[in-house]
Amino acid sequence: MKTQVRSILALAVAAAIAPAAHAEIAIDVINGSEISLEGLMQADGNWYHNDRADLNAASPPGRDGADTEFDMRRSEVILKGKGGRFDWTLGFDGKANKWLDANIKWKLGTNYVMAGQYKQPNSLEELTSTRHNDFISKAMVTNLFGVARRTGVAYGDDKTNWGYNISYFGRELTRNLAQGPGFGGRVYWAPVLQPGNVFHLGLSAVDFDADQVGAPDSSRLRVRPDADLATTRLIDTGNIANADRQRTFGVEAAWIGGPFKVQSEYMRSRVSRTTSAPDFTGDSWYVYGVWNLTGETWGYKAGLPTTNLPDEPSSGMWQLGVRYDATDLNDGVIKGGEEKNVTLGVNWYYRSNFKFMLNYVKINSDKYLASAGREVSDDPSIVEARAQFYW
């Protein structure tokens, strides 16, 4: 696998020398619907400086416990149809072996009805296109409480500077992944909306049945330390038995001022229980800033910041970013732990189809260990790199 990934990285670098391709491949027009093909490939490398726990422990099979790890992160192919009253999407990730967006949208002016599998309306960072995430790993709050893709039915409206979405959902389309029926909604407003000058606010909520695959009526909250390839979680509630429902509320904000962007989210989640055992409540948040060194700004569409192409394709767009995110999974007798991370990043968008990322993550975590009879700190650091090709 490591040899394969190194080859992919080399090919990506070599391909960067070639002329830029189109953002998507047009296939045909059928009954007024423009059919196109999109794709995304990401190859990651992680270098761990462990403190106590082995962040690359030999699980799942194939991991050797070494301080470095290389792997494909995503290998996505997406077929889309746009035009007329209906848009549709069908996507699959060959790396994860799972369905992505697989839905049809009926457009009613700015309103729409959508059915199938789609991202649920409760996370600004999760709803943003993965190819344009500002850091290699999404923040802990997103990975913990972002419901992501589920099958369901949604109704929404996207005006110029405000909109909303309400959704009823079930399990993921791919079996043996996330499940538990529920509902959610998100509303956003941009009181300032001008080219290069945007202020965004949003509220969201989801409520769903706590039902893990293979462990019905239970919930477990845990998160990787801002490293997608890590196999160890430093904070983990363990299984919360007799769980009934999980309810998450979120607030979000973003500001764009020319080449600068600041973004933040806070989510608080409660797991209610069917017995006299107390409910569990945890929370998480982040704030980050990104600076386009080459002067580009961002766009804004349907309640989400959008990343522009480089002004000068031959030299590309350079970005610097810094993020602070924190999570608290301690509540009463459940000692899931606390974690606070600082991430420094540099991104290079080259031409229309390539992106290279480098992150440094410093972690500070504390978790109660029964064997020690006290809270124990674990403060590792990680260097992460990503090569990305998309069209």
UniProtKB/TrEMBL annotation:
Name under which the protein is recorded: OprO/OprP family phosphate-selective porin
Keywords carried by this UniProt record: Signal
InterPro entries the UniProt entry points to: Porin_dom_sf (IPR023614), Porin_O/P (IPR010870)
Signal sequence region: 1-23
Superkingdom field: Bacteria
Naturally occurring in which organism (per UniProt): Tahibacter soli
